[in-house]
């Protein structure tokens, strides 16, 4: 007698599932699998890892103090006197300043996105889920901010607050939330009508809990993609403001500010302008590679 | 259509009111005294009475709501007030600078269209080829380069090293002016060109997957005809939208590009005003920029109906 024959349907199903060698996969492992196949994404991640390492280890790996002046050795050409990339107009080591610059740019990018993201996600979620007057008010504010020439607004506010790195981060954070608000609102609006939300309502889950525990986790994918591009955009904007003198102040080794100073010596010491911009580009490019791959990985339509 | 445009123009009024109110509050609530900034003096060392007289003269002693309403009343009549630093009227100053900025923005828009649309079409058509990969790589570079760096590098290469093009406008003849326009326009357009190439490609790819394209091929139409007449026309609709929205962002980017190339436009006017806390000029610039933003959006929406007959705004 075949005693090992499963009796109930559910047992048979369990047995059937064990036979297939495919393990259940979470969204995250799925995204990771997708991204691993993308050469650009891998390249971007490696570059980013190097930059993050430079940022963290800057004080130990930079050959010199980025602020140390040495007027006798100003404008050293690259490779001379132990300065791999030469020195600037007051004899500071360019390579050391570039390495320390990674710190500033990455931190600025992340902080700006953290501020903008938390404001935007919260307001967008409230707006999309509760609707009504709150929705109208928030969306009108978004419309008005959208009509603002963004850079002029940021410039004006930083100028009145006083140009500094902190003020610039705050302003960029408070200006950039609208994108997240629109995105999250749209996603919440569509999720609100889905079956699992109706089911949650039916079993008596509170609105607050539905929004934060059931709906928002489902918007995480789009938010993360947006945030990744957001870091790149924030780094560009921040270096632009610093370039105009409205961000990091001298002698801070910020890439945009360094480029602005370097322009004065474009003819004789072009590397002072070339190198900082190259660093900005590499950083932004790496983040964009990762963002691109992530967007494709999160998009079920493009999945292979 | 006329009624639709009219309604949209009416809707712009509350928007601009909100923008002006926000700017006004922002600028006035933050510490920093325009009078002392104007004279570059320590207010404590100036004669208090003299200082007060200047403030009174400029209307800076009145309550804020009164100041705002007075400002608004003047703006409606086309009077943006006088610059605190140059004492010149802001309205004419902006009007005088505006053409240079528009010129720059239009020129870089042309650069963008000339690069992005052909490249996007080719990329989509030859999807997966080395050409496609190259174009996509280049476009990603385009959006990742800071425009102030692109500008500086172009000056380094074409002005300082090769000596082909001027970095600052010199001379009044048409050729001189066109030459001076090239580098700023390319600088301003680089990032947008990258973005639009990708937009055109993905829009084109979507359209080329449609049934009617297969039908057109099946009918035996020439490849080029299908691509341009059938594919591109539809694919351009979203492209035009983004292009319109981005035209406004070009104006924002002009702030930096005008600084690099010493271009006598509104961007530089705004930056200088911001440095000097010249409130009337800042407000005037923000309002004009916001108006252009809103108008650009309106134009895009109207263009839409011509490109896509399915869209009708009238009931």
What would you say this structure looks like, in words?
The complex is a heterodimer of chains A (304) and B (315). Chain A is mainly alpha-helical and 304 residues long. Chain A has 12 helices and no strands. Chain B is mostly helical. Chain B has a domain of 211 residues: MetI-like (MetI-like fold). Helices cover 77% and strands 0% of the residues of chain B. Chain B is globular and about 85 Å long. Chain B starts with a helix and ends in an 8-residue tail after the last helix. The chains are: A mainly alpha (304), B mainly alpha (315). At the A-B interface, α5, α6, α10, α11 and α12 of A face α1, α6, α7, α10 and α11 of B.
Which superfamily, in CATH terms, is the homologous superfamily of one domain in chain B?
MetI-like
**Number of H- or I-type helical stretches of chain A:** 12
Structural class of chain B: mainly alpha
> Which fold name fills CATH's third level, the topology of one domain in chain B?
MetI-like fold
- What is the count of β-strands of chain B? 0
Keywords:
heterodimer; A: 304 residues; mainly alpha; flat; B: 315 residues; MetI-like fold; 77% helix
Question: Topology of this protein?
Answer:
The complex is a heterodimer of chains A (304) and B (315).
Chain A: H1 9-19, H2 27-36, H3 39-61, H4 94-130, H5 132-147, H6 150-161, H7 165-175, H8 177-192, H9 195-202, H10 207-243, H11 255-262, H12 271-298
Helix pairs in contact in A: 2-12, 3-4, 3-12, 4-5, 4-7, 4-8, 4-10, 4-12, 6-7, 7-10, 8-10, 9-10, 10-11, 10-12, 11-12
Chain B: H1 2-29, H2 34-39, H3 48-58, H4 64-76, H5 90-125, H6 130-144, H7 147-161, H8 174-208, H9 211-218, H10 223-260, H11 266-275, H12 279-307
Helix pairs in contact in B: 1-12, 5-6, 5-8, 5-10, 6-8, 7-8, 7-10, 8-10, 9-10, 10-11, 10-12, 11-12
């Amino acid at each position: 007698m075949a005693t090992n024959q499963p009796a109930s349907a559910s047992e048979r199903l369990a047995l059937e599932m064990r036979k297939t060698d495919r393990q259940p996969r979470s969204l995250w492992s799925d995204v990771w699998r997708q991204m691993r196949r993308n050469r650009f994404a891998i390249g971007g991640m490696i570059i980013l890892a190097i930059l993050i390492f430079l940022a963290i280890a800057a004080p130990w790996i930079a050959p010199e103090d980025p602020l140390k002046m040495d007027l006798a050795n100003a404008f050293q050409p690259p490779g001379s006197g132990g300065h791999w990339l030469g020195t600037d107009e007051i004899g500071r080591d360019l390579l050391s300043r570039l390495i320390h610059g990674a710190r500033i740019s990455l931190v600025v990018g992340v902080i700006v996105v953290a501020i903008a993201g938390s404001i935007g996600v919260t307001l967008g979620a409230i707006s999309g889920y509760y609707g009504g007057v709150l929705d109208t008010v928030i969306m009108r504010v978004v419309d008005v901010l959208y009509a603002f020439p963004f850079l002029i607004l940021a410039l004006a506010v930083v100028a009145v607050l006083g140009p500094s790195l902190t003020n610039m981060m705050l302003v960029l954070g408070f200006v950039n939330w609208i994108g997240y608000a629109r995105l999250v609102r749209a996603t919440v609006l569509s999720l609100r009508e889905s079956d699992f939300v109706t089911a949650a309502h039916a079993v008596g889950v509170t609105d607050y809990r539905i929004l934060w525990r059931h709906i928002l986790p489902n918007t995480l994918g789009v938010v993360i993609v947006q945030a990744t591009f957001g870091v790149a955009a924030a780094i560009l904007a921040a270096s632009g403001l610093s370039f105009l003198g409205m961000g990091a102040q001298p002698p801070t080794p910020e890439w945009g500010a360094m480029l602005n100073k370097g322009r004065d010596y474009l003819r004789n010491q072009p590397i002072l302008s070339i190198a900082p911009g190259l660093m900005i580009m590499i950083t932004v490019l790496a983040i964009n590679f990762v963002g691109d791959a992530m967007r494709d990985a999160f998009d079920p339509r493009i999945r292979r | 259509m006329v009624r639709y445009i009219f309604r949209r123009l009416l809707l712009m009024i509350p928007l601009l009111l909100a923008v002006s109110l926000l700017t006004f509050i922002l600028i006035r609530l933050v510490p920093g005294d325009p009078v002392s900034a104007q004279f570059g003096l320590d207010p404590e060392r100036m004669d208090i009475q003299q200082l007060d007289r200047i403030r009174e003269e400029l209307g800076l002693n009145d309550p804020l709501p009164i100041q705002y309403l007075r400002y608004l009343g003047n703006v409606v009549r086309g009077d943006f007030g006088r610059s605190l630093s140059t004492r010149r009227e802001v309205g004419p100053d902006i009007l005088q600078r505006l053409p240079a900025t528009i010129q720059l923005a239009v020129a870089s828009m042309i650069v963008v269209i000339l690069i992005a649309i052909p490249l996007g079409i080719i990329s989509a058509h030859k999807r997966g080829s080395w050409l496609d990969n190259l174009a996509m790589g280049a476009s990603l570079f385009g959006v990742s380069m800071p425009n102030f760096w692109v500008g500086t590098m172009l000056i380094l290469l074409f002005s300082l090293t090769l000596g082909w093009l001027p970095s600052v406008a010199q001379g009044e003849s048409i050729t001189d002016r066109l030459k001076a326009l090239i580098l700023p326009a390319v600088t301003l357009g680089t990032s947008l060109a990258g973005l639009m190439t990708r937009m055109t490609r993905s829009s084109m790819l979507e359209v080329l997957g449609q049934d009617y394209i297969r039908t057109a091929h099946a009918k035996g139409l020439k490849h080029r005809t299908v691509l341009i007449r059938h594919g591109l026309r539809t694919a351009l609709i979203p492209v035009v939208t983004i292009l319109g929205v981005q035209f406004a962002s070009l104006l924002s980017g002009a702030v930096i590009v005008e600084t690099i190339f010493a271009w006598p436009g509104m961007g530089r006017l705004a930056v200088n005003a911001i440095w000097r806390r010249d409130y009337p000029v800042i407000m005037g610039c923000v309002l004009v920029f916001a108006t252009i933003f809103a108008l650009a959006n309106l134009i895009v929406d109207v263009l839409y109906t011509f490109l896509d007959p399915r869209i009708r705004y009238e009931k």
